[in-house]
Amino acid sequence: MKAHIITIGDEILIGQTLNTNAAFIGEKLSQIQIKINGASIVPDDETKILKEFKRAFDSNDLVLVTGGLGPTHDDITRKCVVDFFETELVESEEVLADVNKFFEARGRILTDTNRGQALVPKAASPIRNSKGTAPGIWIEKKKKIFICMPGVPYEMKEMMERFVIPKLEEKLERKSFIVVKNLLATGIPESNLYDRLGNMDELLQGAKMAFLPSQFGVKLRITIECHIEVDANNKLEEIEQKIRAKAGRYIYGKNDDTMESVVAKLLIDRGLKIAVAESCTGGLINNRLTNISGSSQYLERGIIAYSNGAKVELLHVGEDTIQKNGSVSLEVARQLAEGVKAISGTDIGLAVTGIMGPTGGSENKPVGLVYVGICDSNICTAKEFRFGDDRLLNKDRTSQAALEMVRRNLLGIPYDD
Amino acid sequence: MKAHIITIGDEILIGQTLNTNAAFIGEKLSQIQIKINGASIVPDDETKILKEFKRAFDSNDLVLVTGGLGPTHDDITRKCVVDFFETELVESEEVLADVNKFFEARGRILTDTNRGQALVPKAASPIRNSKGTAPGIWIEKKKKIFICMPGVPYEMKEMMERFVIPKLEEKLERKSFIVVKNLLATGIPESNLYDRLGNMDELLQGAKMAFLPSQFGVKLRITIECHIEVDANNKLEEIEQKIRAKAGRYIYGKNDDTMESVVAKLLIDRGLKIAVAESCTGGLINNRLTNISGSSQYLERGIIAYSNGAKVELLHVGEDTIQKNGSVSLEVARQLAEGVKAISGTDIGLAVTGIMGPTGGSENKPVGLVYVGICDSNICTAKEFRFGDDRLLNKDRTSQAALEMVRRNLLGIPYDD
Predict the structure, then answer these.
(1) In chain A, which residues have pLDDT < 50?
(2) Which option is the CATH number for B2-171: 3.40.980.10, 3.50.50.60, 1.10.760.10, 3.40.50.720?
(3) Residues of B with CB below 8 A from A109's CB?
(4) Fewest CB atoms within 10 Å of the CB: A21, A164, B260, B264?
(5) ipTM of the predicted structure?
(6) What pLDDT is stored for residue A187 in this prediction?
(7) Interchain contact B296–A (C-beta under 8 A)
(8) What proportion of chain B, given as a percentage, has pLDDT over 90?
(9) Cβ contact, residue pair B300, A310, below 8 Å
(10) Which residues contact B348 (CB under 8 A, 6 or more apart)?
């Protein structure tokens, strides 16, 4: 099955919005072994959209379109679909019920503009939208499939994962299996990790591996293609074990794990509670910890002690300690962690202080200098990190390093190295 | 001049690499008023690349290609250019000197593979590459321009900014000017905003406007094309005024503004300080406020009062209030805001409490129910919101609604409606 992806929207063409939709769709299709023949971006222009629909549908088995399904005048995809398939719009009772429910839940009144969302092309099966009001469109013709989804990323993603991918999988006849696994490492630079893993051919034996670095660490993406699924999985397992033997302490998770989901699971499994004092990250660590459903099981409270006053009053950091060492120091990080643990009565206290930039650095304490403090029932300690000069990346890096300290604490991995 | 952008590479098609190159090129071209007709992504496949070259060059005045110019076997763009323009490869002395210099500077030895980078299509002027070894390609034929650049983003960007854009500007005969402005609205659903703005033709008078919704609100992108630049700007100003007259209270910023940058500026301009108590958003509001450099000027502290204990102990919310109303209630939101203002000695206290989901809802208090409390020196109040069922989107929406309450407070816009 050969696929083509069409993204509709001037904002994508002129670079105001990054085309994350095409990337997401491409990734999901390739995960189920559908070959992507090409992708295109088309402006909000009826003639150009119709021309592209024709070109894509003529030379592919599957066409996926995103964008232009909303309720306003600039959304013309549905109209183009009606013209292209020479059909007409009919009101779908099912979709109208969805739209009604959506508005009721939000205590809003349904306008005619909204009601118009329930009109779907007669030739199509509507795809239900659980995150918004515009339904997707699924049309089958001449053994080919044509799909339209909204351009709002979270609406499109939900449709892809819940409906489009499962339904496409039903229709596929499998000849070979590609398995993919991502191992997530942090606390080690890409090139050091590469050197540590040694000879690649020996390690991979025909499999493929990509190093994908970001501010959160390095993702290792391993891809294996086999005729028999179990062979591919066995080979993958073998490679993973070899990698873990060489760099296991840096690997905090796999696939869709995040550092916060890994730490959350460890805390819940052990029935432990944490409290977090943040200075430079300004709430990011607590925010990440509360992105996980059920976070009240392990997060007791957080303090964003941005001013020195807040550090002293709320967390009992010594005024003399700040005066002697400065608020960005190993000792203040340690005392912040101690303080937040003490006032919250939790098992673990975590704290960060640092200089995120772009301003505020000095020769002795440059932008990117960070201290992470951590306390459990046995020991209170802190560690120094040096990051870069970009404020938002530094916040991400600091939050990742702090949560990695918690992971290492819980697993008994030394903080150093 | 009509342009088409081609990105070459399997990694883009299968979503492993985000197509930031096409976005960058699109943005740069539209800044110099070149109209982008379309964009496409093509796999590393000779037949498909040639077919796309032909299609794009036939119906455009300008084609820009990135990717596949490197030294290894999988880079086939140059070969395709040679075939497409029926030319041959010749060694460019100028490029060879560049490549030699590049290797000398890095103390590396030039191999035959590297030397091959100095071969350029005879029909082309090479574009020098100051960040790498693969030269770009500039071909003019039949009054049309065909450009190839490397796929490495920083090499491509350098070529675009230093060479391609200035040279294209020389060739342009400006006949019209395109100006673009984004107005950022929040607190009003897309369809209500649309209805409020009334007749679009009357409002826009030939200009174009797109509604771009997200969890943070609705972006209105207005585009105007005129023969005289000042006319375009005047017309834009006129449309903006009309929109503001009809929906001004919802518009919190324009272009690259974010809600946090708008609120930060208002607080700094007035010399005011804020403290924020978060329950359900778990640190996100404080995190957003500290994403702005210089945030210590206006943020005193934040409290993530996740447990009821923390709400009572740290922020002096009445235990009886929680028992009577529940922790997700109008009164608790109000008391949290009052408490955080009082303990911090700030001008404004902001607080949120709510149910982010996916679990934790009940019939009376469903997932998505949120209360935002705000206190200044005159008044303490709170407002109810009802959002959806996605945890992370609800956190975003809640943080946006809370910061919007601060903006309205500072500008004297009523909270209701």
Answers:
(1) none
(2) 3.40.980.10
(3) none
(4) B260
(5) 0.83
(6) 94
(7) yes
(8) 80
(9) yes
(10) B267, B272, B273, B274, B275, B341, B374, B375, B376, B406, B409
Mean pLDDT rounded to a whole number for chain B: 94
> Would you say residue B107 has pLDDT above 80?
no
**Cβ contact A57:A63 at 8 Å:** yes
Asked whether the predicted pLDDT for residue B249 surpasses 70, the reply is: yes
What CATH number belongs to B259-411? 3.90.950.20
* Distances A330 to A225, A334, A397, B255 between C-alpha atoms, Å: 49, 6, 18, 41
The answer to whether B41 contacts chain A (CB < 8 Å) is: yes
Report residue A197 as tokens. Answer: 């893993």
Instruction: Report the amino acid identity of residue B253.
Output: G
Q: In terms of Cα–Cα distance, which of B330, B314, B303 is closest to B322?
A: B330
Helix (H, G, I), strand (E, B), or coil: what is residue B117?
Answer: helix
3-state SS, residue A240: helix
Nearest alpha carbon to residue A372 among A394, A359, A353, A345 = A353
**DSSP-derived secondary structure letter, B347:** S
Q: Is any Cβ of chain B less than 8 angstroms from the Cβ of A37?
A: yes
- The three-state secondary structure class of A360 is coil
Whether the per-residue pLDDT at B27 is higher than 70: the answer is yes
Spell out the CATH class of B177-254: alpha beta
Of A154, A281, A307, the CB nearest to B300: A307
In this prediction, what percent of chain B has a pLDDT beyond 70? 99
Q: Using CB atoms, pick whichever of B194, B314, B390 lies closest to residue A71.
A: B194
Q: Which of A26, A71, A283 sits opposite B14 (nearest CB)?
A: A26
3-state secondary structure of A350: strand
| Torsion, Cα of A222, A223, A224, A227 (10° steps) | 150
**Integer Cα distance of A249 and A193 in angstroms:** 11
Spatial contact of A21 and A153, defined as CB atoms under 8 Å apart: yes
Residue A338 to residue A345: CA distance in whole angstroms = 10
Asked if pLDDT for residue B175 goes beyond 80, the answer is no
Task: Select, from the ranges A220-229, B202-211, B315-324, the one with the highest average predicted confidence (pLDDT).
Answer: B315-324
> Quick one: tokens of B332?
């608790």
B207 interfacial to chain A (CB closer than 8 Å): no
B281, B402 contact by CB (below 8 A): yes
Note the pLDDT of residue A51. 97
pLDDT given at position B73: 66
| Chain A interface test: which of B17, B40, B41, B313 (most A C-beta within 10 Å) | B41
Cβ contact, residue pair B189, A285, below 8 Å: no
B199 and chain A: CB distance < 8 Å anywhere? no
Contact B145, B123 (CB under 8 A): no
Q: How confident is the model at residue B416 (pLDDT cuts 50, 70, 90)?
A: confident
In A19-72 the beta strands, taken as DSSP E runs, fall at 35-42, 62-66
* CA pair distance A267, A196, nearest whole angstrom: 30
So where are chain B's domains?
A: 2-171, 177-254, 259-411
- Count how many pairs of residues, chain A against chain B, have C-beta atoms within 8 Å: 269
pLDDT digits (tens, 9 = 90+) for A319-348: 999 999 999 999 999 999 999 999 999 999
What is the C-alpha to C-alpha distance for residues B229 and B273, in angstroms, rounded to an integer?
42
Q: What share of chain A is helix, strand, coil (3-state, %, to 5)?
A: 45, 25, 30
Contact indicator for B38, B7 with CB cutoff of 8 Å:
no
Does the CA dihedral B267-B268-B272-B277 come out positive or negative? positive
Token pair for residue B257?
A: 């503004």
Closest approach of chain A CAs to the CA of B282, in angstroms? 5
Per CATH, B177-254 and B259-411 having the same topology is answered: no
Contact state of A40 with B43 under an 8 Å Cβ cutoff: no
